């Protein structure tokens, strides 16, 4: 996740009893000022005014995703990466069926992390042979779904290999399998680490040769390797170093494979800016590095390998906005609170409670104000409607004065938003999601 350092939860937990530790920050608009332009005082998303979108949704809060921004982002990533590198979308970032249908036309593949995501991915036009299924703890039922459908199972353990063999034998098919490797290195700069040291993800690289030697080729069609070692990284140099180390590792492991490597998933981890101090990831050096690796190592040594970069948040995160309405406004001992009808039950990450080390304000704006609104700005805390101090969407945010009924937009809400939030907490209705 975006931040490093102590979390809000931790800060509060360690504060003097009854005193909430201060968390500072001011609001700032969306990092790309062209993404969601204002029409007068009103934010537009996909060219539609926020107040009209609220009317269309029928209720607040709700999420809106701009398909043009998603397409634009995919095009930008493709332009930055060398030709021949395939792009896979990690469905976990945002599994909304309408968005998946849109992405299906733009991606080379989809990556899923559960039987539920698998069924959604299979509903799209992406062929099963271009769908991969990664993640620990796949049940025999999920493996059965995946193998029957012909998707690539990315093995996370030796026991999973046994299960795959058993399921393939029972179904009378050859399972398409890649091995997820837990590398001996961690990726510097990742907001979330998924590789290096002991991990529930993948098979430790030093155990891989022995496991490859045990692959039952009658039941298992071994395709290649997957290394996904980190997420939310804004440091191009770290990503370059990880990609180089990954290729080096895979070239060594390929010598133990029971078949030529036809699939090489180098992971991704491309981040997006969430906090004011974050800088957008520079794709150019990553693309140059990949081009060099392709030319000097991958193509000569693994000529049959499809090379895949797997991205979630970078493709959809910045295209989403969470819109919520002010339901109360109050002063408390010098602080002005805007209380909105949304909160952490829909947008946990923006409150700093989804793996953030330090809570920092996400970019936000007043998306629509009633006619005749006061011209001044003010500094406010934007809090959600849940009865917990964790439900803090914006701390000391400078915003145009907002009144009850006005709309607040929280940006960077397209990835790990609704489905990464505790929607059942306090029993509020589920928000709508619109794709425009
Ligand atoms: C295997 C795998 N692929 C893809 C992703 C997506 O990461 P991101 O959305 O940061 O691109 C993750 C994230 O945890 C993952 O574990």
Write the layout of secondary structure elements.
Blueprint: H1 8-14, E1 38-39, E2 42-45, E3 48-49, H2 50-57, E4 62-65, H3 67-80, E5 85-90, H4 97-104, E6 109-112, H5 115-122, E7 131-133, H6 140-149, E8 152-155, H7 158-171, E9 175-182, E10 190-193, E11 203-204, H8 208-212, E12 220-226, E13 230-233, H9 236-254, E14 263-268, H10 283-301, E15 306-311, H11 313-316, E16 320-332, E17 335-340, E18 364-368, E19 377-383, E20 392-400, E21 407-410, E22 432-435
Parallel strand pairs: 4-22, 5-6, 5-15, 6-7, 7-8, 8-9, 9-11, 9-12, 12-14, 14-15, 17-19
Antiparallel strand pairs: 1-2, 2-3, 4-16, 10-13, 16-17, 16-21, 18-21, 19-20
Helix pairs in contact: 6-7, 9-10
The chain binds pyridoxal-5'-phosphate.
The site of pyridoxal-5'-phosphate has 15 residues, from strand 13, strand 15 and helix 11.
Fold and architecture overview:
The structure is a single chain. This protein is α/β, with parallel strands linked by helices and about 425 residues long. The chain folds into 2 domains: about 10-65 and about 320-435, Lyase, Ornithine Decarboxylase, Chain A, domain 1 (Beta Barrel); about 95-310, TIM Barrel (Alpha-Beta Barrel), CATH 3.20.20. The protein is about 25% helix and about 25% strand. It contains 11 helices and 22 strands. Strands 4, 16, 17, 18, 19, 20, 21 and 22 form an 8-stranded mixed beta sheet that branches. Helix 9 (about 235-255) runs parallel beside helix 10. The two termini are about 25 Å apart. Mean pLDDT is about 90; it is low at about 1-25. It binds pyridoxal-5'-phosphate. Pyridoxal-5'-phosphate binds near residues 90, 232 and 312. Pyridoxal-5'-phosphate binds near residues 194, 232, 268 and 310. Keywords: Pyridoxal phosphate.
């Amino acid at each position: 996740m975006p931040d490093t350092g102590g979390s809000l939860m931790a800060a509060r937990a360690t504060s003097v009893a009854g005193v909430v530790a201060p968390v500072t920050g001011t609001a700032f608009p969306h990092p790309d000022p062209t993404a969601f332009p204002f029409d007068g005082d009103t934010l537009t998303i996909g060219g539609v005014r926020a107040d009209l979108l609220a009317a269309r949704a029928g209720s607040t809060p709700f999420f809106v995703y701009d398909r043009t921004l998603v397409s634009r982002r995919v095009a930008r990533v493709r332009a930055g990466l060398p030709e021949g590198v395939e792009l896979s979308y990690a469905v976990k970032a945002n599994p909304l069926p309408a968005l998946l249908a849109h992405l299906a036309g733009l991606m080379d593949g989809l990556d899923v992390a559960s039987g539920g995501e698998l069924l959604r991915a299979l509903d799209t036009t992406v062929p099963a042979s271009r769908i991969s299924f990664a993640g620990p703890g796949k049940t025999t039922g999920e493996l059965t779904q995946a193998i029957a459908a012909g998707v690539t199972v990315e093995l996370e353990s030796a026991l999973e290999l046994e299960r795959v063999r058993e399921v393939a034998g029972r179904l009378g098919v050859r399972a398409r399998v890649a091995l997820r490797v837990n590398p001996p290195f961690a990726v510097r700069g990742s907001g979330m680490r998924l590789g290096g040291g002991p991990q529930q993800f993948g098979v430790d690289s030093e155990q891989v040769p022995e496991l490859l030697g045990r692959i039952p080729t009658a039941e298992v069609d071994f395709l290649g390797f997957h290394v996904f070692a980190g997420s939310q990284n804004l440091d191009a140099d770290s990503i370059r170093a990880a990609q180089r180390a990954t290729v080096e590792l895979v070239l060594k492991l390929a010598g133990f494979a029971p078949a030529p490597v036809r699939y090489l998933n180098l992971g991704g981890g491309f981040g997006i800016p969430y906090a004011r101090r974050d800088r957008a990831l520079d794709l150019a050096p990553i693309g140059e590095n990949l081009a060099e690796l392709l030319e000097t190592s991958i193509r000569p040594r693994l000529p049959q390998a499809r090379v895949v970069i797997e991205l979630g948040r970078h493709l959809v995160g910045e295209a989403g906005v969470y819109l919520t309405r002010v339901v109360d406004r109050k002063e408390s001992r010098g602080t002005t609170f805007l209380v909105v009808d949304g909160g952490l039950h829909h947008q946990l990450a923006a409150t700093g409670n989804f793996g953030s080390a330090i809570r920092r304000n996400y970019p936000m704006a007043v998306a629509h104000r009633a006619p005749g609104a006061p011209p001044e700005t003010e500094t406010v805390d934007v809090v959600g409607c849940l009865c917990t101090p964790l439900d803090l969407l914006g701390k000391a945010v400078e915003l145009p004065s907002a009144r009850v009924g006005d709309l607040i937009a929280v940006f960077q809400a397209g990835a790990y938003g609704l489905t990464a939030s505790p929607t059942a907490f306090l029993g509020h209705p589920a928000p709508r999601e619109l794709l425009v």
